[in-house]
Design brief:
The chain contains five helices and two strands. It has about 100 residues and is mainly alpha-helical. It has one domain. A two-stranded parallel sheet has the order 1-2. The longest helix is centred in the N-terminal third of the chain and has 31 residues. The chain is globular, with a radius of gyration of 13 Å.
Amino acid sequence: MMFKFIRRLFYYVQADKNLKEATALVAESLIQAGYPERVQDVYDNIEHNESGLALENLCENLYDFSCPVPQKAYDLLERSGLAMDVDKDYWERLKPLIVK
């Protein structure tokens, strides 16, 4: 039982790290689109243990504002989402926005 808890905690810590890195990679796109507060909202949600919500909101913002998503950022979002068991539709709809 304790091992499962520790393993799950590790996955969430790694997911948070990946989500922060992905956010840093797309931050400039959201800022240029005129939504710098959306970037801060993601970081605030992560700090308040709402990483799943942060990932969902980030993906929705990127999609809604048609922001380019670097492949690395997409991969990090996917890894974070899988680790947190977030619905894959959030990041999968970003595929048309991926840039190399």
